[in-house]
Predict the structure.
Amino acid sequence: MKTINTQRWILPAVAAGAALCLVSACSHSKTDDDSSALTEVDVARPIVDSIVLHKSYPATLISNQDVDIVARVNGYITAQLYNDGDYVKAGQPLFTIESTSYAQALNEAEAQLQTARATHEYNSKQYEAMKKALLSDAVSKMDVIQAESALKESEASIKTAQAAVETARLMLSYCTVRAPFAGHASESLLLPGSFVAGESSPVVLTTVYDDSSVSATFAVEDTRVLELRNSPAAAKIDYDHIPVQFGDSIPNKYTGKLDYTAPAVNKSTGTVPMRIKIDNSNGELRSGMFATVLLPYAVDPKAIIVKDASIGTDQLGKYLYVVNDSNRIVYTPVKVGELYHDTLRVVTEGLRPTDRYVTKALLKVRDGMEVKPIEVK
């Protein structure tokens, strides 16, 4: 009778069972790893809000007022009394011009005035005496008439002498050139020692700019001006605080008040000149600077807004990565509008309010990729 070697059959069976368990365990492990291996991405839904829409226009700044400071007398410049670029006060002396000849002219005019007054005093007494003498027939009527004429001539002489004094005093005052108003003075065009012939033709010495406020001038399409006037939302738009941008070189933010719209259209450009006034209390803005005026023109009651950093750019234009219901990335071309509150951007086409878009780490995802979305606010 043969004995069956059970050990020979048990060992292969155990090995087969172990292999089956190992395959089953590996299968479950692989599924778990696939789930945990999905890339996590932050997603958000667009903000829907009522906002004022703007259109940007290039603008140039001009100071509140500026004036050339000129010499109006003849002579050598004796001193410059400010440093180039200084802020000067109204009435502050800026230059002095030699004044000797003008001081002498004033002394002569004042002396002539004194002479005219003395002559007038004599003629006045003479006339009174003549009138009394006429009553006693001591003088003729003609003598009285001559005395009266001399009195009137002396009165005229006083007025002429007074005018000459005022002129001489004015010319002497021109020897000290003063700032007409407060502002920044540009560099001097002539140095002390230079001769100026201001009486014949005023000579520019410097320019003073009143830049306590500045104006931004720009041109708007005539059709846009009509839209601004006829828009139902015009009453809701604040034209007293129009945003103005200057780039990163200006740390402070500025707004301006619309204070002028030209009454006629420029025929060559089809635009209407406009102007806004900007407070320059920080002293950062200068005449001649370039700016961008964000002119409000309408109100969008349901604007779609996303984080500006989430928008990508390629050869086809702007795009967003949207996560669909299957948690897969969808490359989505969009059209965008203006920047909103510095970090947000208006999307005008391509995105729905219910869509989920990737907010950051755009380089980690690609079109069609399955991800694990984490919704953030």
User: Anything to note?
Assistant: The helical segments are 6-36, 100-135, 141-173, 222-230.
